[in-house]
């Protein structure tokens, strides 16, 4: 097994282990891992991959096999997918019966009240990091503004993403 496939497994295992609060909470760790630390993706590549991943349920879990495949082919995709799913699967399977009683405890509710603002802060940092690679011209700023307005008006996220992708393709073709 190649060294990079093993590295993909271990790095995504760590991301999967630390993705508490949902995958979006781990986006800053994903960005640091696949862009800053390893150079597996450029910021623009990560932005594009995230745009496509957010069209699916569990975008960060979808992102792992994409990155793995991009870096090391099918073996890399499988290693990254296994790594990112392994610990959450064990935790979910092991804690399912305990979850109902644990949420009745005051200290668990207090933990949630403190963790929620921290997750929001992580999401804001991730949005800024991803935005640096996503805003590459005036047209992308306009598309982002339109998407923000549409989202605030409760337009379905899949429709927002599809229209944004279509507008990006049209402006890309016009610029070429």
Word description of this protein:
This protein is mainly α and 176 residues long. The chain has one domain (3-134). 82% of the residues lie in helices and 0% in strands. It is built from 7 helices and no strands. The protein has helices spanning 3-18, 27-37, 43-53, 59-102, 106-134, 138-152, 157-175. α3 crosses α5 (106-134) and α6 packs antiparallel against α7 (157-175). The longest helix is centred in the middle third of the chain and has 44 residues, at 59-102. The radius of gyration is 18 Å and the shape is globular.
What is the structure about, briefly put?
This protein is mainly alpha-helical. It has 7 helices and no strands. It has one domain (3-134).
Descriptors for this entry?
globular, mainly alpha, 176 residues
Protein topology:
Elements: H1 3-18, H2 27-37, H3 43-53, H4 59-102, H5 106-134, H6 138-152, H7 157-175
Helix pairs in contact: 1-4, 3-4, 3-5, 6-7
Number of helices: 7
Assembly context of the chains: single chain
Helix content: over 70%
Largest sheet: none
Low-confidence stretches: none
Global shape: globular
Taken in chain order, the helices and strands follow as HHHHHHH
Mean pLDDT: 87
Amino- and carboxy-terminal Cα gap: 42 Å
Roughly what fraction of the amino acids lie in strands? under 5%
Estimated structural class: mainly alpha
The radius of gyration computed from the alpha-carbon positions, rounded to a whole number of angstroms, is 18 Å
Query: Count of DSSP E strands?
Result: 0
The domain count comes to 1
């Amino acid at each position: 097994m190649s060294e990079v496939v093993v590295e993909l497994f271990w790095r995504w295992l760590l991301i999967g282990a630390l993705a508490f609060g949902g995958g979006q909470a781990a986006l800053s760790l994903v960005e640091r891992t696949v862009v800053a630390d390893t150079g597996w993706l450029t910021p623009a590549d990560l932005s594009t991959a995230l745009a496509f991943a957010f069209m699916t349920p569990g975008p960060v879990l979808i992102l792992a096999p994409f990155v793995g495949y991009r870096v090391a082919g099918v073996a890399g995709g499988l290693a990254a997918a296994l790594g990112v799913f392994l610990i959450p699967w064990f935790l979910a399977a092991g804690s399912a019966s305990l979850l109902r009683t644990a949420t009745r405890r005051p200290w668990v509710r207090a933990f949630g009240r403190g963790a929620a603002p921290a997750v929001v802060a992580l999401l804001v940092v991730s949005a800024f990091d991803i935005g640096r690679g996503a805003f590459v011209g005036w047209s992308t700023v306009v598309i982002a503004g339109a998407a923000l307005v549409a989202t605030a008006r409760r337009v379905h996220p899949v429709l927002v993403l599809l229209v944004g992708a279509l507008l990006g393709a049209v402006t890309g073709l016009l610029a070429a």
